[in-house]
Structures are given as C-alpha cells and as structure tokens.
Amino acid sequence: MKFFIDTANLDQIREAQDLGILDGVTTNPSLMAKEGISGKEAILNHYKTICEIADGDISAEVLSTTYEEMIKEGDELAAIHPNIVVKIPMIKDGIKALKYFSNKGIKTNCTLIFSAGQALLAAKAGANYVSPFLGRLDDISVDGMNLIEEIRIIFDNYMFETEILAASIRSPMHIINCAKIGADVITSPLDSILNLLNHPLTDKGLAQFVADAKKMS
Ligand code: G3P
Predict the structure, then answer these.
(1) Where residue 212 sits, what CATH number does that domain have?
(2) Catalytic residue among 34, 40, 72, 87, which?
(3) What range defines the domain where residue 205 resides?
(4) Theoretical Cys-Cys bridge with 130: which of 62, 116, 119, 213, CB 3.0 to 4.6 Å?
C-alpha cells in the first residue's frame, strides 16, 4: 500500500519525506488556502516546490469546474513537473476532462468520490486514481469503509488499473482498515501516519531495554 501525505504544508511534507516511507502528496484548494497560497504564480510555484521536496505522484487540483477551463488549467499544472497528477472533481465535465487527460497520457486523480457508481465512471474515463472520502462519509453516519470495499470488488471484477486512493483519513484505524481491504493508496494527515508508531508496550519495553543496557556498559 502506498502512503501519500494529504497536505500543502511544506514542513510536514519534508518530515514525511525524511521518514522514508512517503510515496506521494495530495493537496486540495482548502489545504492550499490554509497555507496562504493565492494567485496563479504562487500556486504553480508551490506545486513546483512540493515536487522538489517529495518523490512520487503529487496531486494538484484544478480550481475550475467547466471542461474547457479544467483542461486548460490541468495542462498548465501537468507542465510544472512530470510527477504532477491532475486532480479533477467528480462532475460530468470532470469525466470528459479525465478522458481528455487519459488520451494525452497525463495522470489524473478523480476527487470527491462518495459512491461506487462515481468510482466506476471515473475508472471508465481512465482516471489513474479515484479518491473516496472516508472521513466525510463517517461524519454523516455512513460507513466510509464499506465504500472502499465496494470499489475494490468492482475494480477487481474488471481488472481496472485505476488505483483506489482512500482520502479524508482521520485516524490510524482508517489506515489499518484500508490496508485490510486492499486500498492501493491512503492519503493522510501526518499525525495519523505518525500515530501508527504508538504502542504503550513498545514504550515500556524500550524503557526496560534501555535500563538493562546501562547495566551492561
Ligand atoms: O484531499 C481530500 C481529502 O483527503 C480531504 O479530507 O479531512 O478535508 O475530509 P478532509
């Protein structure tokens, strides 16, 4: 399973990259705005910097919602760096844009996926990734993990190459359950990734080993 970090914060991207387990980065307009990035030049520069820090696929989301505008914007984003993946919203014009980029050999990530039917359409249009939003479904009392399971079954039935990129991750349990189901990728805030490290018996055991090590030296 690939680990992407879901942020536009450069320090967090550096920290995840330094850990040595990072496979890519996802961003969205909300995450970019949170970092105070505004204006076309600043946006393109920020994505360039992310590509210089992190290896792997870097999702850069279009801000427009019509086919013509999305393909113009996506072409500009894709020109920044070979690792850029154009992130397209799950709307009718988005499906057309996914097909356009697929025909051009430009990688895409279809975002705001909340149903298996949406994931199927995006895969049909040639998306490289679909991003089902787990946490936001859980927020409205719908089990987000069921959606990952449904998409896994559908993609396996037809051997779609589209990867399931589980997004809107809120906890280490989301990551573990995604791994059990077979999501291809999780994209997560840094704290949920780092929380996978924690276990009180590890801390207790290490404290004992450190204490005993002192007796030997
Ligand atoms: O990048 C898309 C997704 O991961 C957003 O997550 O926490 O805003 O629902 P969240």
Answers:
(1) 3.20.20.70
(2) 87
(3) 2-216
(4) 119
Give the C-alpha separation, 70 to 146, whole Å.
Answer: 31
Known catalytic membership, residue 72: no
Question: How far is CA 199 from its chain centroid?
Answer: 26
- H helices of 54-109, in order, are 67-78, 92-104
174 C-alpha to ligand 1 centroid (Å): 13
**Hey, whose CA ends up nearest to atom 9 of ligand 1?**
168
Residue type, 99: K
- 74 Cα–ligand 1 center, Å: 20
Q: How far is the CA of 168 from the centre of ligand 1 (A)?
A: 4
For the Cβ of 186 lying below 6 angstroms from any atom of ligand 1, the answer is no
Residue 34 has pLDDT above 90, yes or no: yes
Structure tokens at 65: 């919602």
How does pLDDT run across 104-126, given as a tens digit for each residue?
999 999 999 999 999 999 999 99
CA-only gyration radius of the chain, Å: 19
The Cα 50–Cα 58 span in angstroms is 8
Q: Read off the tokens for 212.
A: 């005993």
User: Could you give the CA distance from residue 115 to residue 96 in angstroms, rounded to a whole number?
Assistant: 19
CA angle 128, 164, 121 (to 5 degrees): 65
Model's pTM, two decimal places? 0.96
Look at the chain and report how many structural domains it folds into: 1
59 lines ligand 1 (CB under 6 A): no
Which residues is 133 bridged to in the sheet?
Answer: 167
